[in-house]
Amino acid sequence: MPLIRSTFRELPSYLWSGWGAICSLLLLMAAWQLVSEHYGSLVLAQPLETFASFKQLWNDQTLPEALIITGRRALSGLFLALALGTGLGLLAGVSLTASMMSRPLVTVLLGMPPIAWLVLAMLWFGASDGTPIFTVFVATFPMVFIGALQGARTVDNQLYEMVQALHLPKRMILTELYLPHVFSYLFPAWVAALGMSWKIVVMAELLANQDGVGASLAVARSHLDSAASMAWICAIVLLLLGIEYLFLEPIKRQVERWRVTEA
Amino acid sequence: MIQKKNGYLKVDKVDHDFVRTQVLQKITFSIKAGEVCALVGPSGCGKTTLLHLCNGLLDLQDGVIQNTFQNTASMFQQPRLLPWKTCLDNMTLGLKARGFKKQERNNKALKLASLVGLQLSDLEKFPHQLSGGMQSRVALARVLLLEPDLLLLDEPFSALDIGLKTELYLLLLEQQTQRNLAVLMITHDLMEAVRLCDTILLMNSQPGRIAARFNLTRSTSLRDDAWVYQTTAELLQQTVVRKSFELPVVTNSSPVDLRSCEWSCEC
Known about the structure:
The complex is a heterodimer.
Chain A: H1 2-9, H2 11-16, H3 19-39, H4 47-59, H5 62-94, H6 96-111, H7 114-125, H8 130-153, H9 157-165, H10 170-208, H11 213-222, H12 226-255
Helix pairs in contact in A: 1-12, 4-12, 5-6, 5-8, 5-10, 6-8, 7-8, 7-10, 8-10, 10-11, 10-12, 11-12
Chain B: E1 8-18, E2 21-32, E3 36-40, H1 47-54, E4 62-67, E5 72-75, H2 87-91, H3 93-97, H4 102-115, H5 120-123, H6 132-144, E6 150-154, H7 162-179, E7 182-187, H8 190-196, E8 199-204, E9 209-216, H9 225-237, H10 239-244, E10 263-266
Parallel strand pairs in B: 3-7, 3-8, 5-6, 6-7
Antiparallel strand pairs in B: 1-2, 1-4, 8-9, 9-10
Helix pairs in contact in B: 6-7, 8-9
């Protein structure tokens, strides 16, 4: 609870610091305008055309509906990966044998390109929800697994001796030493997995599904509708930026306050 | 609140092996309440192992260790603070383990903080925001809050500069006399041992064993710098000390006047 309170207390100053970010985004927009004026609207729609298309998609409910479908798929796959990856990773971290055995397997999983999984998923699940969910799961699972494994393996032996010398009971050793330490590895892995899941789900939908943001993007492309394509891309990026800067970053600042070194 | 404490720590014929190397051989000594004892010896002679046997971090293999003190606390070479907890929470960790309520813990900690030279604003900080000296103060406060009657110190201030080190040791000694603490401390600085201790146990390495025991008779409050330098010089002339630290044996007579002899030696 104090975590949530202090997050809200620091929110205004955090938002105020966003002006710099907005400035650089506006510069990007200006560059976009220049490029589209040079090459013409068919190649790259102008920002204003894009926003008009965005507004229209929003008003006729296409955009929100697609976002909900895509979000549901991304989150389902992500939650599966978080639950299984965290659980199995911790278990593997506790035993030396298990961590030695699982490390090469996870390296193989990490090295496998998501598009390869997508091909397999399309064979197994067809055009159903299963394809994007499975692809998201399989792409984010190893990241979470490795985070949990390293968290469980790297508890500082010196600190462990210290809590033993202070005669901390078993339950307190878990809550005061193991959990905070493991969490400091897990949280960054969870955040990275969330970002990854959003990109993967759009790719999977684009190739495999009939609905959702990815599929709509594919439709816009096939109509050679540059404005709509850019509108969909903007929606994807905006949502990701929103999640990252309005939700994750403030939490990260609070949770990792102890880690920040004064520059 | 000085209580009469009759605890003692008795180490009797303790041997210890790591795989096939013998680390400790027939270690025998004892400490009473209110006594300050130093373990002095070259690096790797098993001092830390002996201390870990005393505080139960290692299992005893052979021999007897009898500890009738009610409350033993340890300090390590590093401050060993939990990085994700504020200094206040680090200080009170031991009290939390004993089931003290938060309010009570913090009250005790606030009282002690100024004694060990910690400001209120430091208590809200995380360990990485403090200097090494401040971290050591937090570690010292964490131990003193437990109100121990036996303190085991493994060179807790060795990484600090000499001024800070002396200051923290004096702080510790003040608490020691007030509370009639027994202290067993490791050091490889002979002068530090001469300044602070009633007894110095000199250890040899490979295997670690006690080579000599020096009893310093002058009271710690009367030891000024001159006396400390003089006595350290005298001890350093002893063959047993030179051998233990592998110093070359003295051949010509010393220019230092060696006549105070406020100590005795049992080899």
